[in-house]
DNA sequence: AACGCGGGGGC
DNA sequence: GCCCCAGCGTT
């Protein structure tokens, strides 16, 4: 076979694969759940969340019937909260419109909320054995180095060329295993700073030959950072209840609960009672200021909700708000 | 095509 | 600091 280095690669994967729970099943529900959790998220960060989700919601029906706040509380700390909201949308579609049966083709999968080209391909191959190549950050890195490709990542056309390349390489191999091997190499060997000495196919790597590893993949530069400052107050009523706002469906922290916003930008409280936290948020550094206001009344906060004392532990918060609550020993 | 969306880990 | 992560939805 011409592409015999692929069998070397597959052999390396079979011998060295990390022991990951979603690799031991073909249940589309479990695979779908793992793929959504792992979007833009490292395995080590997502794994404990995956385990808690499958325990709390063993089937798609359990997830489809769950309270939104309970799902968001379980998602708390993972980030990209619209993933959790799309997770619930898709769970309801599959459970209630499709009687619990996931679509088994790429073209049907990609229609579901939260499933794009990568995730639809992943589920089609892992759960249904279809020959759909996955192109994620790992695949871009591995393939651009293997063939020393200087195309800039980001356009539809370049995506398609990488997908076609991976599809060609996959031909003689079981699709699910090839896709796993592709991502595994990118995740443990062909890292941004690669460990070429341990790479099973380094003798095939054109970028290594051409000493251009550090130039691959070619990516667009990230934007310069901006600074923002936000000022929040946690109003507490005389009976110890909290007054919180649930964030709207779009934008930052969608669906999570935050303290009412006093001001942002140039607003400066010049008050030492504000707790200041620096928070790194999507390449932007935010200065967050928090304060407690006791003996508050819900009347003063239109659009906010009164959260009874016995519900405080069930409320999903963004991480910086958790930090503030922990600092005040309120949670 | 460009941008917004989190939080964490590695160096 | 900077980069990037089993990407997707919106504009």
Contiguous helical run count? 13
CATH architecture of the largest domain: Orthogonal Bundle
Q: Write down the overall geometry.
A: globular
Look at the helices and sheets and give the structural class.
Answer: alpha+beta
First-last Cα distance: 61 Å
Can you describe what's shown?
Helix 2 (28-37) packs across helix 3 and helix 9 crosses helix 11. This protein is an alpha+beta fold and 331 residues long. The protein has helices at 4-16, 28-37, 43-56, 60-64, 68-75, 82-97, 106-109, 117-126, 137-146, 156-170, 175-188, 206-209, 319-327; strands at residues 227-236, 242-246, 257-258, 261-264, 275-281, 284-294, 305-307. 40% of the residues lie in helices and 13% in strands. The strands form 2 sheets. It has a 4-stranded mixed sheet, with no helix packed on it. It has a 3-stranded antiparallel sheet with strand order 3-2-7, with no helix packed on it. The termini are far apart. It has 2 domains: 6-215, Endonuclease III, domain 1 (Orthogonal Bundle), CATH 1.10.340; 226-327, Nucleoside Triphosphate Pyrophosphohydrolase (Alpha-Beta Complex). A hairpin with a 2-residue loop joins strand 5 and strand 6 (284-294). The mean pLDDT is 94. The structure holds a DNA duplex (11 and 11 nucleotides).
Strand-helix topology:
Elements: H1 4-16, H2 28-37, H3 43-56, H4 60-64, H5 68-75, H6 82-97, H7 106-109, H8 117-126, H9 137-146, H10 156-170, H11 175-188, H12 206-209, E1 227-236, E2 242-246, E3 257-258, E4 261-264, E5 275-281, E6 284-294, E7 305-307, H13 319-327
Parallel strand pairs: 1-6
Antiparallel strand pairs: 1-4, 2-3, 2-7, 5-6
Helix pairs in contact: 1-11, 2-3, 2-8, 9-11
The protein binds a DNA duplex (11 and 11 nucleotides) through helix 2, helix 3, helix 6, helix 8 and helix 9.
């Amino acid at each position: 076979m011409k592409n015999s280095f692929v069998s070397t690669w597959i052999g390396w994967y079979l011998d060295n694969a990390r022991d990951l729970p979603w690799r031991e099943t073909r249940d589309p529900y479990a695979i779908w759940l793992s793929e959504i959790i792992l979007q833009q998220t490292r395995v080590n960060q997502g794994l404990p969340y995956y385990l808690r989700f499958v325990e709390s919601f063993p089937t798609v029906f359990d997830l489809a019937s769950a309270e939104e706040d309970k799902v968001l509380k379980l998602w708390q700390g993972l980030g990209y909260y619209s993933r959790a909201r799309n997770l619930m949308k898709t769970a309801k579609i599959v459970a209630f419109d499709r009687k619990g049966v996931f679509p088994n083709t790429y073209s049907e999968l990609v229609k579901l909320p939260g499933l794009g080209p990568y995730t639809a391909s992943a589920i089609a191959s892992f759960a249904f054995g279809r020959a759909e190549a996955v192109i994620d950050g790992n695949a871009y890195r591995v393939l651009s180095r293997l063939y020393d490709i200087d195309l800039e990542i980001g356009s539809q056309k370049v995506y398609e060329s990488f997908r076609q390349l991976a599809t060609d390489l996959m031909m003689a191999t079981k699709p699910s295993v090839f896709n796993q091997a592709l991502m595994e190499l990118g995740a443990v060997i062909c890292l941004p700073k690669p460990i070429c000495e341990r790479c099973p196919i380094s003798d095939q790597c054109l970028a290594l030959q051409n000493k251009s590893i550090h130039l691959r993949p070619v990516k667009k530069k990230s934007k310069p950072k901006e600074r923002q400052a936000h000022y929040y107050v946690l109003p507490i009523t005389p009976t110890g209840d909290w007054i919180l706002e649930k964030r709207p469906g779009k934008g930052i922290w969608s669906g999570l609960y935050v303290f009412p916003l006093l001001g942002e930008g140039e607003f400066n409280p010049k008050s030492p009672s504000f707790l200041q936290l620096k928070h790194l948020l999507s390449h932007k550094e935010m200065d967050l200021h928090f304060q407690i206001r006791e003996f508050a009344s819900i009347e003063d906060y239109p659009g906010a909700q009164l959260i009874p004392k016995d519900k405080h532990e069930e409320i999903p918060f963004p991480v910086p708000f958790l930090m503030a609550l922990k600092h005040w020993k309120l949670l």
